[in-house]
Amino acid sequence: MALKFSKELAPAEATPDKRKRTRSPAYPFINLETAITRAQEFFNEEQRNAANWNVAVKHWGFVEGSSNGASTVAALTSFGLLQDEGIGDKRRVRLTQNALRILLDKRPDSQERAELIKQAALAPKIHQQLWKKWGNDLPSDASLRHTLLLEWPTPFNENAVDGFIREYKDTIAFAKLTESDKVALEVQDNGDEQKEKTPYVAKIGDWVQWEHNGVLGFQEPKRVKGFSPDGNWAYVDGQQGAVLASELLPESAPASPRNPPDPNTGQRIPSPPKTTMQEMVVPLANGTTKAVFQWPTSLSKEDIEDLKDSLKMLERKITRPSSESTKADLENRGKL
Q1: Model pTM score
Q2: Cα-flanking dihedrals φ and ψ of residue 244, to 5°?
Q3: Helices 158-175, 32-46: inter-axial angle, 10-degree rounding
Q4: What is the number of domains present in the chain?
Q5: Strand pairing partners for 294?
Q6: How many angstroms separate the CA atoms of 154 and 152, rounded?
Q7: Domain span at residue 224?
Q8: C-alpha gyration radius of the chain
């Protein structure tokens, strides 16, 4: 559907919404078990080598420039499984030594691998903070939600808190953390998070980064080209659809921007419809794992075609003969 621009609202007449908005603390987009699976998929394609960011996200079934691809990179980085190098077209990612030690250690009941998984679970700062406060004695979901929304030094956004609670509990359970496990990297509590900060309000023409659910969504900074009439949604060059204006961060212009300024910069855009997600959970045969599929209720024709292509790629991966997997495992052991 083509966007129609209104000439009645010129940029000089537009007044950004300056109400204070809540940006959640950074937390992983996926839980640790899924992150290790993503690391294995990367290793299956690249081994120990670095890969261009655009190539890496395709190993996970995402298209170039996908916000989910960027979120996956950020999640693996926060767990210490991936290291991110360079910017723009030269941005590359590679598996860390800890990730390789987790993936290649095939010894049954390996204590070394178990310890590395525990370290990865407590690598994200927000995970360290919660573990330090409660350990395994978490309060009820309702109490935890109340604390994170209203009492946490940097409060969570209401739209993000439930997703974080699921991610954190799944990660702690997968890592099998116990009360005797210590936080490897002590969280520095210097009171900075409690200081009141003036929220950034983006303007048309600003170069910005998009932080969604605590992870960065753009491969490189993009330029704001318009807002919805209520100021809550922003449109940027080279990005399909709108993003929440409250999730934009100020950035410097890249040396060689991938997307030139849009000729429609400075015009206002109608508010997009609210996006709701659907989810399908498929329990697997061993009874201990599950596959989870999520998709937006509202999809464009292009989105549907992209999803069909991604499902075909997923089908190829999950139907790969077990003999190939066994052969790959043997080759990997020989490289230890």
Answers
A1: 0.55
A2: -65, 130
A3: 70
A4: 3
A5: 279
A6: 5
A7: 1-21+199-272
A8: 21
